[in-house]
Q: What sequence folds into this?
């Protein structure tokens, strides 16, 4: 069975920092349409800081890497996204524990992240929030974990997250600042769902960057 | 020093500091730490909540000797931040109240001043939401009021007149509530529970108003004596 180790987790966060920096302006434009316009900047600051801290920190297991990321996001992103992403990574870190990640553990980790976000933000699927990317991602990961490899689990999650983010475009928001806009939120993709989809795609890219440890199952 | 401390989490530095000031006036022995705004952080206007500041103040409260720390928050992301700090520190001595900011802070401070534990302070903050409903609306629900006199001499009563200029405002109301906590007795002022600062303030009593005191319990007579003396001394005010 293939497993992902701390090297993958580090590569994931580095890739998150790279992609979010690249998409910073696009995210800000999405957020300017239905929010306060700072989502790209806030996330860029947070993931840059997380990648920088990881470069200095001897975190070995995926759990340690994700926990340090959670703490950094909490203290650097600000607004609602800081606590929400921070909680997602914290719950994922706890589920990951000290071991390498097999497909089942990866799926459980994504599920824990979704539960963290919904607990903290009290949003549900269909509210036009980041939950609309994470919830289908966790579900797809769970389905893929039955027979799939770690790459397949992450790819399934990333694909579902991207579809979920696109699906928010015609909706009216029921949570967060965009909910004050009513009908005017229609036609705009939710920035939180979009950044979530980018982060999950980064998880797939990270697998290609590291050697996947092969172990006897 | 009271065993339960408060950390007040708000979007604005001034809001958190002001609220801490009001609450501290009523609870001199409670550690009350403001954690407002993003001072020194990235945002231009300084409005927002800082995870690091909230965490720092929670740790400070424990260093100051707190057994429990109750966090009270203003809006949206302040609540998310406070909950995140509690979850990250993973310490069940940290409690986040679902309460109105100012009323919750005042009720929590007065309860903490009486030596209450974290759970009791949390409950006081959360019950504060109901304290400013119109007092004498047509609501059929009657709050638990003073006991009816059964003729067995158990209820001690006295009526005194408010002498200080500003009447039963925050500080005197807190004095009355604290006084009750010193005795083994239940006390009502004009029909409201005298341990509730918010209920006392809600009476809106001003100079010259009649204050009807009722008490039951082993120390009923003593507590009435003390509170009457406080009222007649104008609570030490003009």
A:
């Amino acid at each position: 069975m293939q497993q992902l180790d701390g090297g993958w987790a580090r590569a994931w966060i580095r890739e998150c920092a790279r992609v979010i920096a690249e998409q910073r302006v696009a995210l800000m434009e999405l957020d300017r349409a239905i929010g306060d316009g700072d989502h790209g900047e806030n996330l860029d600051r947070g993931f840059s800081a997380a990648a920088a801290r990881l470069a200095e920190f001897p975190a070995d297991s995926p759990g340690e890497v994700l926990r340090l990321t959670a703490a950094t996001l909490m203290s650097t992103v600000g607004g609602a996204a800081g606590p929400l992403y921070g909680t997602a990574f914290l719950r994922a870190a706890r589920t990951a524990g000290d071991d390498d990640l097999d497909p089942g553990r990866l799926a459980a980790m994504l599920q824990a992240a979704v539960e963290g976000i919904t607990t903290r933000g009290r949003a549900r699927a269909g509210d036009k929030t980041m939950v609309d990317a994470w919830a289908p991602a966790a579900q797809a990961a769970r389905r893929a974990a039955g027979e799939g490899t770690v790459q397949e689990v992450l790819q399934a999650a990333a694909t579902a997250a991207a579809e979920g983010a696109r699906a928010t475009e015609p909706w009216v928001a029921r949570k967060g600042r965009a909910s004050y806009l009513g009908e005017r939120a229609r036609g705009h993709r939710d920035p939180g769902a979009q950044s979530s989809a980018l982060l999950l795609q980064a998880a797939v890219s990270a697998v290609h960057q590291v050697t996947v440890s092969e172990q006897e199952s | 020093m009271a065993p339960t401390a408060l950390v007040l989490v708000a979007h604005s530095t001034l809001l958190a500091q002001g609220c801490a000031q009001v609450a501290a006036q009523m609870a001199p022995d409670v550690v009350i730490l403001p954690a407002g705004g993003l001072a020194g952080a990235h945002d231009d206007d300084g409005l927002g909540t800082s995870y690091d500041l909230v965490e720092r103040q929670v740790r400070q409260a424990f260093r100051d000797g707190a057994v429990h720390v109750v966090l009270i928050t203003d809006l949206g992301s302040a609540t998310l931040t406070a909950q995140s700090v509690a979850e990250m520190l993973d310490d069940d001595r940290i409690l986040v109240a679902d309460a109105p900011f100012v009323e919750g802070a005042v009720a929590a401070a007065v309860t903490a001043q009486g030596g209450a534990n974290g759970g009791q302070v949390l409950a006081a903050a959360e019950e504060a939401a109901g304290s400013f409903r119109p007092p004498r609306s047509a609501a059929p629900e009657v709050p638990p009021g003073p006991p009816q006199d059964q003729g067995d001499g158990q209820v001690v009563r006295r009526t005194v007149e408010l002498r200080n200029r500003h009447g039963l405002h925050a500080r005197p109301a807190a004095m009355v509530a604290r006084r009750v906590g010193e005795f083994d007795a239940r006390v009502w002022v004009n029909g409201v529970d005298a341990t509730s600062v918010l209920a006392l303030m809600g009476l809106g009593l001003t100079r010259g108003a009649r204050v009807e005191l009722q008490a039951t319990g082993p120390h009923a007579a003593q507590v009435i004596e003390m509170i009457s003396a406080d009222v007649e001394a104008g609570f030490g005010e003009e």
Summary: Chain B touches chain A at residues 38, 41-43, 48-52, 55, 76-77, 80-81, 83-85, 87-88 (CB under 8 Å). The radius of gyration of chain B is 19 Å. The mean pLDDT of chain B is 87.
